[in-house]
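queue> pop job 88
queue> type: inverse folding (structure -> sequence)
queue> payload:
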């Protein structure tokens, strides 16, 4: 047999605890949310916020993000669920994969706006505080695609090619042949890994830029959006999994390109503005003057 190097993929995407089926995709998403809340809380306190406020806002933002991400996926790929022979109830099966980041950010921001209004704090300051944690969460979340054997590019012979199995997501295992061996579909570009590493680089760059230059209100979030979508545009061009097309390009390629241009423009306009602080200019969360809650900005 000819020796060849490749990146293996799991043949198991879930495990069972009694009647419960635990999907690794969900665990990766949960781990990412935990990292985003932890780092966002540290940065929030550095901007004058109180401990626990990020968690309070995330109780609105996280469900909104999950709902928005799934809605975007189902709306842009309805044929996966609503054509004859398809099961419409699978539209709710988030554990099988399929969360569109654009919908997640959009409705996540709506949830954050609601949470910030209830807490009497600045939405812009909140978004700037959590942006680096959010992209680290995306880096972790991409490993859920690895467990599901999805999000890959064209076939390749590169040493770091990704082995992809035919998965039965309902069973949480790879399909097997007559001999009981996992069925291998082929070897492909590991675009899930490229995107995960890119998210890690962008997150570290955000922390470094914000620490050094004290970016203006809204600039950190704009930089996050521009940085992530620049990479996503390239990775979408590499992917070979199913997607709807517009003028020969994947829908997400168009979305990533347009958001990147808009976010880059916003960053250039916002980067020299005064830095955002946690509480609204007129009052803190209980109506007290904002100065009662101000803290030294450490640039975390």
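queue> result:
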């Amino acid at each position: 047999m000819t020796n060849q190097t490749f990146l293996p993929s799991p043949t198991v995407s879930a495990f069972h605890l009694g009647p419960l089926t635990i999907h690794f995709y969900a665990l990766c998403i949960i781990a990412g949310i935990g990292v985003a809340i932890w780092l966002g809380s540290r940065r929030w306190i550095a901007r004058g916020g109180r401990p626990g406020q990020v968690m309070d806002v995330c109780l609105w933002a996280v469900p909104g993000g999950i709902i928005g991400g799934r809605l975007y996926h189902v709306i842009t790929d309805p044929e996966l669920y609503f054509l004859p022979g398809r099961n419409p109830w699978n539209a709710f099966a988030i554990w099988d994969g399929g969360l569109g980041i654009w919908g997640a950010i959009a409705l996540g921001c709506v949830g954050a706006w609601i949470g910030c209004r209830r807490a009497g704090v600045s939405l812009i300051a909140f978004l700037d505080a959590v942006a680096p944690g959010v992209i680290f969460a995306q880096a972790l979340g991409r490993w859920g695609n690895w467990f599901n054997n999805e999000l890959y590019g064209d076939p390749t012979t590169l040493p770091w090619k990704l082995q992809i199995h035919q998965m039965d997501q309902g069973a949480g295992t790879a399909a097997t042949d007559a001999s009981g061996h996992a069925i291998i579909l082929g070897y492909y570009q590991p675009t899930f890994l490229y995107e995960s590493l890119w998210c890690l680089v962008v997150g570290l760059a955000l922390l470094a830029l914000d620490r050094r230059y004290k970016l203006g209100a809204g600039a950190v979030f704009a930089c996050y959006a521009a940085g992530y979508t620049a990479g996503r545009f390239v990775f979408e061009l590499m992917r070979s999994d199913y997607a709807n097309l517009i003028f020969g390009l994947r829908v997400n390629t168009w979305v990533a390109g347009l958001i990147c241009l808009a976010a880059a423009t916003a960053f250039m306009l916002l980067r020299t503005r005064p830095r955002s602080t946690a509480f609204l200019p007129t009052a803190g969360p209980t109506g007290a003057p904002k100065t009662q809650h101000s803290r030294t900005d450490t640039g975390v």
